[in-house]
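Record pair follows.
FIRST:
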Amino acid sequence: MDALTLEPIYGSYGMALSISLILIAVTLRFQPLVRNAFQRKWLVRLRFLACMVLVLAIFRPTLNFTSEQVTPTSLVFAADQSLSMTLSDGEGRTRERVQNEAWKQISTELEPLKPDLDLKVITYGDKVTEMKTNSASALETIQYDSASTDITGATQHALNMNRGVALSGVILIGDGNQTSTRDLEAMQLTLETLKGIGIPLWTIPIGRTSESGPPRDVSIDAVPEAMQLFAGNESSINFQVNAKSLTGIEIPVELSWIDSEGNEISFATRTVVPSSADDSVSLSVTFTAPAAGSYQMKISGKPAAGEIATSNNDQISFVDVREGGGKILYLDGTATMEQVFLRRALRRFPDLELDYKWIPEDTQTSWPIDLEQDLKAEKYDVFILGDLPATALGEFQLKQLSELVASGAGLLTLGGSNSYSSGNYQNTSLANVLPVELATPLTSTDNPNSRRDSGEQIAGPISVSPAQVHPIIDLGSSDINESWNRLPSLLGANRWEGTKNIPGVVTLLESETKEPLMVIGEYGEGRVSSVAFDSSWRWWRAGESATHRRFWRQTMLWLLSRENFSNKDLIIELDSRRIPQRFSEEEAAQFLITPANPNNQSFAEDLKVFVVETDGTRKSVSTEIEFRAKQPIVTGKIPPLEPGIYQLQAVAGTAEETSTITFQVSEKSIELTQPEADPDFLRQLSAATEKYGGQSFRPENISTLCDLIRKNHASSQIQVTSTFRLGEDPVSGWILFVIFTGSLACEWILRRRWGLA
């Protein structure tokens, strides 16, 4: 008790004293008319007791108590649970481990301040979650799987969850890498709110500091996602090695094959030495394709000492190696729409490997070009000659080409302003190979340009009609004429002198005036197809891309002597073989399945598609059947998958009729593609509340932070005055009431008992 005071009614001592004296005087003056002194004495005592209760109520005695109390407050600890916390802190530990140890130390050192200090724990990533416990082991149960970091959202949530409760401060720990799309204005507003209510923000940055030097990183880039090769053929792969903060340090690079069984065999090694702090080195590695099968070509850069993220040190290319198939060399001299769409069509088929060489007209000074390596026996199975004059190749190399066809290679010649007679092929040995008759050889006095314009071209538009039934021109319709009639007309074509009257020469396509447009034949052991037009690209542009691909594929298969293939073969096409992790329906990769045999119209009736995991687990995939150029096509979307290697498997009919394609789901999180910590950002945030005690602390200085919190908590003690006024609380009020009414009741009872008036 510090003080006893009186607080009379109406705040007037005079009035209270006057009333009290009157009550006492009346009590003493008007005594009971009782002769018995004993009885009179007790009746007066009881009346006087009731009078004293009234006097106390009038003067209202008050006891005042003063004490020191600590104001209960809360402290919010915000922990980062994004994917980047699984990375190294640059000093041998993971960021999540550093964060867990920091929280355990804070929880232990501040334990004595409970319950006056309420520790609340939240985790933040792409969303904020309030933990149900604030024990020292609270962070051991969280999953570090958030794909982004929203530091702004965490700070705002810390403020909102403590409305109506005194907030002593916010501790924000993490790597400082703000990867969410929230704008900077939101963060600025949050900081202004903190400053406005005077709350300190303490930050604990995790990761390399500027004193530690810039982060090191090795990454493999620019690797083709898929390759089609043929067993035993020599090929090459080009890629880049990116290096940061590794100037002059050797980086070993290894290339290896991973077969379908998961066996990994190294086949090449290289060493890269960066010449600058941020360097990209291009490499080209030549190799021989392994035995037929499906492989992953893995290119790995050895992790550097102190490297934070190593997930980008490896890159995979999916390689399909085939025993047979066809390797095609396409030679052209004019950048036309035809060559663009023809290349696009042929490269969609995994069993056809296309090499393209452009020989522009402005290089005539170096004609004939050197094709020594390309005209080696068995290097290419099919040769395509586009709009290219004979002089670009030269008689010697044209003779070599003729010999290759005679030995079994296929040859396709296309129309154009520099093809056939217009390109002076009638004077070469290749004229003997073609199934068509070219114009008579030029004499020394003939002008090639005048010959070119003297009726050797058929003016368009030209409607194409089948001359007879053949697998090459079967477009999948029951009415072959109807399927060709719906195609757009051609813009023009070359005119031949005629077709050769020898066994095996067949005209497949002709114009409405019966001029031959496509003629096939044989030369030695090889096959030859001569096409007079160069505007089949118009079919693709008119929505008949499937027809365009089918026609040219069937032409290639005939030239390869592979027109009689199995109905079991399916072709699976994926948008990409390296698919980013999917987070929405719009991001789903699509696949398309067609039969290798264009005449197989029933393949989709019992087709089932599965995604196969590395452990053999199969997950069914829903599909739809579409019709393009009256040919059934199966389409679908890759379902959401975790990062890893998978197979897309198509099963038609029995399990033996199976085709597969391997693909990779890659990590999409920006948390791992931008692994560098940003401690400076957290320092800037705490500096905004420096006026109220905001600071930034390294993990090794947690004790200093706890000392500061304890000091601030002790300074929050306030003097609390407690007041006890007689009669105002229920207990004392009832006591006075009982004494007052009890004394009067006793007085009345005694009077009745003694028979007094």
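SECOND:
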Amino acid sequence: MRIAASLINRTLRDGAGRVLLAFVLVFVSIAGTPSQLSAVADEVAHIAVTTLTPEVLTEGMLASVEGTVTNDTSQPFNDVRVALQIDPNAIKTAADLAAVVSKEPTTHSDLTLLVDVLSTVNSVLSPGESATFTLEVDPLAHGLIPGAVYAIDLQLQQRIQGDWTSLAATRVLLTYLAGQGESVEHPTAVSVVALNSQPSLIIPAEEGSNPSVAVFANEHLGAELETRLNELLDYAEHFDANVVIDPLLYDEVSALAAGYSVSDSDATVVAGSKQAVAASWLNRLNTLLTTAGGRCYRGLSATPELAAVADTAYSTVVAAAASTLREGHPLAELPLAVLSITGRLDAVTLAYLAETEPNVIVSDSVATSTFSRIAERPVLVAAANLVARDGTSPSSATLLVRRTRLHAEQYLAWLAASPLVTVVTDQSQVLVETDMPTDFVAVPLNSLQPSEAPIVWVPTAAPPLQIPATMLDLVQAVDTDFTYWSHISPTPELVQLGRNTVVSAAWSASWAGDWASAANWLQQRAELIRTALAAGKIALKITPEWHISEDTTAMPVQLTNNMGVAVRVRVLFNTENEQRLSIPASDFVVIAPGETETIRVEPTVYGSGTLAVTARIQDGFGNLVGDLARFTVSSSTASALAWITIIMAGAAFLIATGLRVRHVRKYGKRAGPNHRSLVTQLSGKFASSKDRELRGAATQSPDSQADLS
């Protein structure tokens, strides 16, 4: 082992009283009771590892550790050193690793002390001062066995009354691969970039004769396209990562790129400023879709919080989130990857997911990656690690410390034949992943092979999430409004897509449990929809009295759309007597907001007189909407159809009668005088009955005569 140590920027200060005070402060901060702590007891010292070279070792290599120590207290530290210790117990399983990282790094009697002197005795680390250190370790010389992970603790120590006491500590993990040089088998690394963001669109763009731009609640998304989302996309472009794209994010960025407005807190609408940024980012993403091959996936719209969905039994959210893509959408042909990265994945949630037929589920609730059968389909359930979650102390949160943990987790998962999937969602995670050593080979998700015997994994249920009742009521109200809108819309399928998007966005994991913010956004969408639907009704106007004559048969009906959305409706009629007056339903018409359409219907009358009629508006789903209209229809003549019916009936009667008389007379000639007298008698009776009918008709009222005619 070679040891190289140095302290820089030291400032020596005199004063025995100050030195003694520093000793006392350090002692009570470690061993004292709360009543003994001074005003500066909350001040701390820090030790941080900045470089581990290399981060992943093979046999025959040395490990070089560099870092800094800092005195963040108001008192100097005398007689300080940095000590490096290695736990001789090899870490070979994920359970072993979890036990190690769950504990604070501190002095352990069973650890092998490799370095015990960094600085000379009587050295001083002044208040606010930092010093660098460099330590070099030969793993083989200290009995480390390849094919395992080892914990290395580094401590800033001070000698107080002859004993070395730890002021600060940190821990890095040393991954020690088996094999030498080119013969080593390189483990795989599976990284997933999650491209999603908090919903911010409140008014979608309108196309057609009166086009309008989309309106957003704020510039939140535009700012993210310049920072977090920009770095995530850059990482995906250059490091062979898998990408799961939220369809809602894609659509919202597309809306930004097409030009948009922003609604301020006082409801003032101003032009957006990130159109060019959005267009550039979207162009890069589209290029990635065509070049990344099997590494691109579509996610559930808005990446809903699955645990919240399961707890509220609002099962339609999952189906809605999987059904938001219009025909021809750029993501429509991508395989579906479900991310469950902020909550549990239990049997109930898996049942909800079954109907979406996902290709892969990435969850941080599973210990190992496996293939499970969901609705009789083998689906990869990948064990995920969120790189942001690391350690239990602030001192262990440096990027290097997190990266060494990631290497260890990936290597141990690879040893267990269960590749670890790391989910990257922010800039710090990008920095952790960017310096991935060449010892790991990045692979696509679809390269993970199914196990020989798929296992149905059912985890232990976790406590339910507390969703505010007001949030549930608001979601239900929005759902109801969308249902009504889809019924009257000329494009119900597009309205349904909008409904699916809004409902899934309300449960987005991007809210991070901030249901108040989610409800505020949803309330804005709800008010806009409700205002558009309740701005007015569809007015039905018909002349109260309508007269049908030989010259006037078509009846005009006027429909006015007083709502804020286009509608598709028709008019139904119900007459007092369908046998005397029949009015067919009108054709469906599409009416733009604020517009009026006049349609004409052709009543069919079967006589003169006046009849009452009611009219109602019907939507495309058979529901009656709006108020009914009452009017009367009077007729002074029968319609053409009625006349044809009467004439044809009379002609048939006369022909039948003539044939009958002819037959009887012919029979009478053959029968002789007796029969002829019978024919004469029958003819007389028939003639007498017709005379009586005609005489009776002459005494009836004019209306009755008209009906008879």
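COMMENT: The longest strand covers residues 163-176.
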